Amino acid sequence: MKPPRKHDNELILGLVSVLEENDGMTYDDKTVSSLEKWFKDTLTTPVTIHKRVIANQRFSIEKSLRELVDIIGCDLVMTTGGIGPSRYDAVPESTLAVATRSLPGFANALRQQTVDPLLSRPQAVLRDTPEQTALIVNVDNDERILKALADTRDSDGKITAEGLFNAMRRCLLRINGLQIAIRDGDCDETVDIKCDSVSMPTAYAEKPETETAVPETETEKNDNVRREDVSSITQVPAFDSDDILTIAPSRTRMQPEATVIWLHGMGVDNTDFADFPDQILQLGGPVCRFILPNAPVREISAHPGYPLRAWYDVLSDRFEDQEDKYGINETAMKVSRLISELEELGVNRRRIFLGGFSQGAAMALYAGLRQTHPIGGVIALSGYLPLAADLFKDITPVGRCTPVFMAHGDFDSVIPPLTAQRGAKVIQELNNSLIWKTFPIDHSVSTDELMAMTLFLRMQLRA
Which string of b and e fits 395-416 if b means at least 16 CB within 10 Å? Predict the structure, then answer.
């Protein structure tokens, strides 16, 4: 999954304040606050800032850098402090440890802007992930860096020395296609002057004036409507009774304390989790009635010729990059209709939980965070957040307060843990009730994971 951006050309920025130690005393670093203000005042394109304050220790620094790049999806990470010659100054080594490529020329320019250029050791590196590349730079915890970021101009307003941030902008254009504009200049002019050798990504490339649009074929028009025009889905019927399995624990006659709508994974059917009610009860959990709908049988575009049950189409093997928006919305509306039908039968919505595994977990997250009336909670095992960037505009006030439990295997070979974690970070920005847990398993469910889910159910029913 690519970093979820709320706007085009949005800069996702990480600012890390490394607390320095000297003679047993720790000194605070106010440079991060100044940098945050500088970016907000200077950029005209959107910027989202994630701040961290950490100890000057290799483990903490490396962990923070990996989290900001790999999970949150920062394009640019700036660390302040911890770049001197002391044995406690661990930032340069930590930065190199997470790097895939270094930028020695950039590092030298950064060193010239430190308090003591001869003894400072700032690094400038690139960290590559499967989805993107991030620029990581170390700066001194001295506010002179703010002057170094901006261009130096003469009395006539002409640039006499280029600021460091212009170099950062060119780098971000080359590695991620971001066009970042600032208040005292136009981004396009900067690109033309400084980056004339850059091959622009297709999304940003200008078309020749002589180019004429090729009319869409009727098939292409229909396909575009099928994939994108979700507004045409006005009333979607819930599931046919033949496609719903209702299971209660076999070892008790007690009335259900909760109703769980559970969505199975791709390629299986609704019998795959039929033993969950008994297992939850054995682990000391509540008496749960499980409503298990079947996904429709469809041919998957990424692997044609093999029809199977799936909640939506998978358009490519990089499933999180190109997504079936129409199919996801259609299923979400069916799920919402099912919840309403249960409510009409007298089931308390606040005791209805929406959960699933794998693709079913993805659907549970998508539909659960868009409910307009409260439900008990959302449970996602070995799943991910589909159409993650849309959540910023689609989440409802109820969705912001809905309890969410996400669990994932550290060794999941189907849905990469980083994909799941990045979706969890998006949810966490909008809903502070998220519970995230990992377990040493592959794409499966373990007893420990089921126990954690059981505790979540019990906790929400007592709330």
Answer: beeebeebbbbbbbbeebeebe
